[in-house]
Structure formats: C-alpha cells, structure tokens
C-alpha cells in the first residue's frame, strides 16, 4: 500500500545517503511489496465470484474485480504524484465497484472493502478510530441483513478488515516517524556544520586580528628604528617574520581544529606587543592561581583584550589582573563607547558557553575595562 499523502515515505538508500532526502525510506521495495500485496484482495474476491456466480454474472464479477485492481493501481499512482483530486476520484470509483461486486462475490467482496478502508485510513490518518469502526460494520450488518445469503454477521471478515487497516496504518506511521527522524538527523548535521563554520570564523578573527595587529605595530616600530639608523630595526623585522610564520601556523591549526591557546603564552605575547606599541604593561608573571579548566578561555580573553588596547585605546598603560575564576584587563585609554564587533561577540560566545559573564565598557575618569568571570550567571554588558 502506498504511504499517506500527508507525510510521504522514503526509501532505503545506504544510511550515509539518507540525509540528502529523508523521504526515501519507503519509496523502495518496502512500499512496493506492501502495495503489490494488497492486489491479493481483489484476487480473493474473484474466487468468491467463481464460487457464487456463473455464466454472464461470473464474467461481470470478474470484470469488476479486474477494474477494481486497475483503479487501485491508479490511486496508488495519484499518491506518488501527491494528486489529491485524482486520489479521491479513484477512491470513489473503488467504492462504486465494491458495491457492484457484492451480488456476485457476496461475503468475499468485503476483501475489496478492506482495501478501501485501508486507503481511507491513509488519507485521513487522524480519524483512524472512526474509520476502523465504520470499516468493521458492513461485514457484520450486510450478511445478516441480506437474507438470500443465508448467513449471519461475518465476524472473521470484520476482523480481517480491522487488522488489514491497522497494519497499513501502522506501516504509514512507522514510515512517517522514520522520515521525521531522518529530517531531525539532517537538521542536526546542518546545525553542526553551521556551528563549525562559526567556530572557524570566530577563531580566524581572533587569531588574525591579534597577529596582524602585532605585525602592524612591530613593523611600524621597525620602520621608525630604521629611519633613525638603529640596529634594533633588524631585530624587529626578524620578530615580524616570526610572527607572520606563527600566524600562518595558527590559521592552519584553527582550520584543523587542533590549535591550543595558553594563558601564559598570551601574556608573554601581550607583553611584547604592548612594549612595541609603547604601552606600559602591568601583566602577571604567573598563572598558577587560575583554575586549569579556565586557562585556555582566559588566554582568549587576554588575546582579545590586549589586541583592542593596541588597536583602539591609545593608552599609555595596561593592567591585567588574574583570579582563580576571573580575568580583568584595564587601560587608561580614550574609553569610547563599546562597539559590538566580531571580536567581542566571539568572546561573549566563548564565555557564555563556559557558563560565565562578560563586562566591557568605559571607566571613569578615563580608560576601558574588560572583565570576564566564569562560574557566575552574570550577563554580559557593553
């Protein structure tokens, strides 16, 4: 039996390919087998025609059973094309053919009724209880009401109609649930891919923003030293070359997902870039007081904070203060209103993922403060 129009099934590709089309689970041999199997029911009705009719009546009965099978196949094609108009048309044709078959096949004509009831359950899945109840009544009432048949209520046929309808309905629900599961899996994969792209974009921004800032500052220092004829210009140019190589290494590692940022390393780099920018640095020499679980996160905070000091603050002094669950970066620069740049946004994402909070904003009478505290529900403020 074809699956419901409301929720088309899918078909049996290898698991790795299912995410591309989550509606293919029952479009293969499973649905074909069930749909073809339902053609047995008109065949059983034809046996009833042979049993209860003869001559021209038998020929008419066989023709009706064949026409019913054709209408069933055409209705299945309407399901595949999701053509609800044609589906209801062929459904009505099958009902008419069933009624026409009753005089020729008698009780066995209710096998056609089982197909109709199952099809109705697929089209109106939310009314399954009512459909099953209505489907079971004709086999119980008609054989008892039509006296020439000389039979009472046909309980076995009624049970056949009920269990056929419930089996097809259960298949449709299972196929629909499987399709929803595959859709959810595809959505999870899509979100994971987006998260990975966001991670790479954030890491590249943090890495290149810091590294290019340091290279710019040290290149400017080297130029000024070269203009004054100082031999230190060679040392600064060498440092710029090393920084460029390190930035390239960091970018490759960020894309691969294996890069590690350490708090001690960022403090050492920060001390060097502040010195090159002419900013007096008051940075801690030790990081042992910081919880090891927060060392990498605080390394990112120091990197972002010191990069912004060099870029925007026009400060003469910068202080970094560490605590077991917090880090604060304070400068005496211009202290303009905070902007929601990519660096600060990415930093907020990192800190919030760790369950912490970010404070960033100007301080009086002059300067800027960036403070991160982990292990609190403190919200970020800019």
Mind sketching the topology for me?
Blueprint: H1 15-18, H2 29-37, H3 40-52, H4 55-80, H5 84-105, H6 110-123, H7 128-145, H8 155-227, H9 232-256, H10 263-276, E1 280-282, H11 295-313, E2 317-323, E3 326-331, H12 342-353, E4 356-362, E5 368-374
Parallel strand pairs: 1-2
Antiparallel strand pairs: 2-3, 3-5, 4-5
Architecture overview:
With 382 residues, the protein is α+β, with helices and mostly antiparallel strands. 65% of the residues lie in helices and 8% in strands. The chain has twelve helices and five strands. The protein has helices at residues 15-18, 29-37, 40-52, 55-80, 84-105, 110-123, 128-145, 155-227, 232-256, 263-276, 295-313, 342-353; strands spanning 280-282, 317-323, 326-331, 356-362, 368-374. Strands 1-2-3-5-4 form a five-stranded mixed beta sheet, with helices on one face. Strand 4 and strand 5 form a beta hairpin. The radius of gyration is 38 Å and the shape is rod-shaped.
Features:
single chain; 382 residues; alpha+beta; five-stranded mixed sheet; rod-shaped; disordered C terminus
Please give the alpha-carbon distance between the first and last residues: 61 Å
The coarse overall form would be rod-shaped
Briefly note the structural class of the backbone.
Answer: alpha+beta
Radius of gyration: 38 Å
Q: What is the number of beta strands? A: 5
Report the oligomer: single chain
Strand order of the largest sheet: 1-2-3-5-4
Sheet having the most strands: 5 strands, mixed
